[in-house]
């Protein structure tokens, strides 16, 4: 797993700043945080196996749930730990859908810490609508990239998952606002490092000076990640969306916007 402290799991709605925080964490001398590794599928399999065969394993094979869980945790740790070489004593995993499995990871890794990344849903919608991501099964553009309503519903659902995990896991989850990171990067990163029980490292702010390991859709952020973090993308919905779309997003996601202070 890790050599001393627990692993770190990041989740949040796509286009909320997850990749930015990932490369910042990866710039820390003690933390390895690479592209999405796919271990989400292991967490999903562990949950499904526990729900369908957990009682059978315990009764007929004398395999208690905690032992089965430990085996899945070991598989995840081996995959993520393979990248954490040298002084990189701790691994982190970033995937938007980690939100679905924060509680599963928490049971597998009692010392794990979790980061819920949030951003104004109207800005997330503006960013999603600038994409043409397609469902590989149908070849059609995802609804959350095709309409303001679809983007709002998607953001709303992802935020609800994150807020639910915050309630369930309490102090093990830190909510990080993209806007705070953009406006005050060093204080925000210092607070993040304190939460992780790691020393602050100035290298995190110089992430753009490193060769970045980007994969898949992360490549769409390559140009922005060559620059230092700044607030220039905050409030983009006011420049890119019409008033009707902004109003519809507000109607659909009003409760979540209010809960996160974006009213």
Question: Would you kindly provide a written description of the structure presented here, covering whatever features stand out?
Answer:
There is one protein chain. The chain has 263 residues and is of the alpha/beta class. Helices cover 48% and strands 9% of the residues. A five-stranded parallel β-sheet has the order 2-3-1-4-5, sandwiched between helices. Helix 2 runs antiparallel to helix 3 (65-81) and helix 7 runs parallel beside helix 11. It is globular and about 55 Å long.
Continuous helix count: 12
Question: What is the string of helix and strand elements?
Answer: EHEHHEHEHHHEHHHHH
> How is the largest sheet built, in terms of strand order?
2-3-1-4-5
Overall mean pLDDT score? 87
Shape designation? globular
Write out the CATH superfamily name. Answer: P-loop containing nucleotide triphosphate hydrolases
Quaternary structure: single chain
Named CATH topology:
Rossmann fold
**CATH 2nd-level architecture:** 3-Layer(aba) Sandwich
Number of domains: 1
Overall structural class, as computed from helix and strand content, comes to: alpha/beta
The total of beta strands comes to 5
Helix content: 40-55%
Largest sheet: 5 strands, parallel
Report the span from N to C terminus: 41 Å
């Amino acid at each position: 797993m890790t050599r001393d402290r627990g692993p770190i799991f990041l989740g949040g709605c796509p286009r909320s700043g997850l990749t930015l925080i990932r490369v910042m964490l990866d710039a820390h001398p003690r933390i390895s945080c690479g592209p999405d590794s796919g271990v989400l599928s292991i967490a999903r399999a562990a949950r499904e196996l526990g729900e369908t065969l957990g009682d059978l394993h315990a009764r007929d094979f004398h395999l208690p749930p905690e032992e089965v869980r430990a085996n899945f945790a070991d598989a995840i740790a081996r995959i993520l730990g393979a990248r954490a070489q040298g002084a990189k004593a701790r691994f982190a995993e970033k995937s938007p859908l980690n939100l679905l499995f924060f509680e599963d990871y928490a049971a597998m890794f009692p010392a794990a810490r979790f980061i819920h990344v949030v951003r104004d849903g109207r800005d997330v919608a503006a960013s999603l609508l600038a994409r043409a991501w397609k469902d590989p099964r149908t070849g059609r553009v995802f609804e959350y990239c095709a309409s303001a309503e679809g983007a709002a519903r998607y953001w709303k659902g992802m935020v609800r998952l994150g807020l639910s995990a915050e309630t369930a896991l309490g102090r093990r989850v830190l909510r990080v606002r993209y806007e705070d990171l953009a406006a005050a990067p060093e204080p925000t990163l210092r607070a993040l490092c304190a939460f992780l029980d790691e020393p602050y490292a100035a290298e995190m702010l110089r992430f753009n000076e490193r060769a970045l390991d980007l994969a898949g859709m992360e490549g769409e952020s390559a140009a922005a990640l060559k620059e230092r973090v700044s607030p220039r993308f905050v409030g983009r919905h006011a420049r890119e969306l019409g008033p009707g779309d902004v109003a519809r997003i507000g109607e659909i996601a009003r409760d979540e916007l209010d809960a996160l202070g974006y009213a």
